[in-house]
Amino acid sequence: MHEAAKVAATMILHCIFSVVVGVASALILPTLGPRPELGYLGALDSDDLFSELGKQLSPGATIIRRDNPVVEVDDEDDVQKTVCFANNHSLPFLAIDGSHGFISTLGRMQGGIAISFMKLKQIKINPSGDYADLGPGLTNGELIRGLWAEGKQTGIMLGGGHGYLQGLFGLLADQILEAHVVLADGSSVIASQKSHPNLLWALKGAGHNFGIVTRLKYRIYDRLSNNFLREDGQPPQLINWYNFMRRPDIDSNSAVIQMRMIYAGDLSGLEQYAAPFLALGPASVENVTVPYPELFRINRSDESSQVVCGKGMYRHLFPTYLKRHNTTALREVHRIFTDMTTNSPVWGYTNPAYSNDIIAASKAMRQAMVDGSGSEQLHAYVNYAFGDESPPEMYGYAPWRMQKLRELKKKYDPKGRFNFYAPIGKPSD
């Protein structure tokens, strides 16, 4: 590491976590930038929204903000009616739940209708205990706490789904057994291995492009004990990552590196993996033992975290997916980050004039990581994408995959109504 960088190592034990295949590095920077704007619909559309659509919705549904409309749906039929209304009035629409989308392409949403799922938070565990029916309005925290109370655990996500349990059970998208989907024309289908299997395949990695998921049948697992360990390489219950951050109490001139190791097992099992990092002489070491639901709070990634889930803060993410780390590249990233934060070390800002400088520096860090990986290709995790990535950079370079996705796009969304989040492009692209 850079000589000016000091290591703050944090080891969190006895938490179910997993190894990431390769290395996913995301530079998370809060900025002011493009965002969805529902926009003023005009008197005619606003009146129609209440008089026409309002009468069609279920009693539990609500329309709020006449000029900036949000339809809080109460069932799948409400979603279908809202989509049909938007189509009939040539209005764009966007489904929202936890409002945790960062990608800049969401800024293309102008003058439309938001479809909110905040009333649809059901968790219904099947008597077998193998799966649960989940509502689309659930946040990760609500789902994890709800299942934990019943002796179960899982994670939830479309778009691939890196998560804390992937080393043990696979990607989160692998847990999807069935999805109820409202398509662009307002019709509803069930995607499963028996019905619309190709749509189910597409939803798992590129679901933002194909429809609105109104219910998921999702695999769940019994709460596991914390005594897992493999001795051949990094075990599935271990993950580590690091953050560059400003800690003037440790180093007043340069950014420090905070290293985190999360492991499901006893302390003796972790020691062999922690030893190389402890040998660097970290400025501080903290050991914390927490149950799985508490992991998000400890890592400052739960609903209370201003950094990750705080409202009113703009963020840009610049992910890279690497097979290996290059120390020269890491030094360059550390240098850029240190230079960028020297004059403004405070988290976040309110002056949009800073955005161009922030984005330029972030792209430079991303490119340094790619160059150091020995590959000319950028691989970006779609759920963290900034928005300037090409479809192959987000969905994979294999020609057959992009062709299949675009053929399915033409079948299920021929008019491109779902093009606001990481669009895959047209069949001819």
Automatic annotation (TrEMBL):
Cofactor: FAD
TM region positions: 7-29
PROSITE patterns: FAD_PCMH
Keyword field: FAD, Flavoprotein, Membrane, Oxidoreductase, Transmembrane, Transmembrane helix
Domain FAD-binding PCMH-type residues, every copy: 63-223
Family matches, as InterPro entries: BBE, FAD-bd_PCMH, FAD-bd_PCMH-like_sf, FAD-bd_PCMH_sub2, FAD-linked_Oxidoreductase, Oxid_FAD_bind_N
GO MF annotation terms: FAD binding; oxidoreductase activity
SUPFAM superfamilies: FAD-binding/transporter-associated domain-like (SSF56176)
Record-stated family: Belongs to the oxygen-dependent FAD-linked oxidoreductase family.
PANTHER family registered for this protein in UniProt: BINDING OXIDOREDUCTASE, PUTATIVE (AFU_ORTHOLOGUE AFUA_1G17690)-RELATED, FAD-BINDING PCMH-TYPE DOMAIN-CONTAINING PROTEIN-RELATED
Listed name of the protein: FAD-binding domain-containing protein
